[in-house]
Amino acid sequence: MIITIDGPAGSGKSAVAQMLARRLGIQHLDTGAMYRAVTLDAMEQGIIDNPSAIARRARRLRLAFDFSVTPAQLKMDGRNVSENIRRPDVTQWTYVAADNPSVRAELVRRQGLEMVEQVVQLRARIEPMSVSDTDVVAFSSQHAETAGPLYDKI
């Protein structure tokens, strides 16, 4: 099952998707975390203002989810970055990776490789290609600090 939740960075998509996955008893593949990881890497490498360099790095980064823990941890080149990718400065710059067509193409390719049965897939942005293979589409405009009321609606 693929459930696509769309909305801006920091709108509570991850929190809602994790809760929904728990309620449905399925895993959650946080694709937005992948864009955040690419952003974190670009910040650490000092290339945040260089779209071509970001795309090259994205193709070389090793990104892997550890589903043995809940929520799943994201490892970048073997390092758990699950906490660091949620920092406000990373959130502020995530659009640099998410809006980069080369990065998007690479991460969408990888997301297909990561797919397993019964995963709630959180996609950072709905595009025609993601809607066609989606079972459910939801939109989130809720701000992260007030996402709590969304839980009761699911």
Describe the structure.
This protein has 154 residues and is α/β, with parallel strands linked by helices. 47% of the residues lie in helices and 17% in strands. The chain has seven helices and seven strands, in the order E-H-E-H-H-E-E-E-H-H-E-H-E-H. The protein has helices spanning 13-24, 31-45, 51-60, 88-98, 101-114, 128-131, 148-153, and strands at residues 3-6, 27-30, 63-66, 73-76, 79-80, 119-122, 136-139. Strand 4 and strand 5 form a beta hairpin.
Q: How would a crystallographer describe the biggest sheet?
A: 3 strands, antiparallel
- What helical percentage do the residues reach? 40-55%
- Discrete helix count: 7
Spans of at least 5 consecutive residues whose pLDDT stays below 50 are: 116-120, 124-132, 134-154
CA gyration radius, whole angstroms: 15 Å
Shape: globular
| Strand order of the biggest β-sheet | 3-4-5
The fraction of residues assigned to DSSP E strands is: 15-25%
Distance between the termini: 16 Å
Structural class: alpha/beta
The total strand number stands at 7
Instruction: Give the rounded overall mean pLDDT.
Output: 77
Please trace the helix and strand order, writing H or E for each element: EHEHHEEEHHEHEH
Oligomer: single chain
